[in-house]
Amino acid sequence: MEGLLGLNETMALLVLAIGLAMVLGNFIALVKGDKNESEPVYTGRAWFLLLVGVVVTAWAVASLVV
Prior knowledge:
Blueprint: H1 7-35, H2 43-65
């Protein structure tokens, strides 16, 4: 733990949580969007945000490991 209250690690964990939420949320939207036709799913946007979530999650994991 470096610095006051380990803020570097805390920020990396928060970014990891946001990245995982982006990945899981968009994945669920893509899976349920195929079954639920009452509400349209913007698949292009969902795939893009899923990819951004993967990048953010990988970046956060790399920050925690290094």
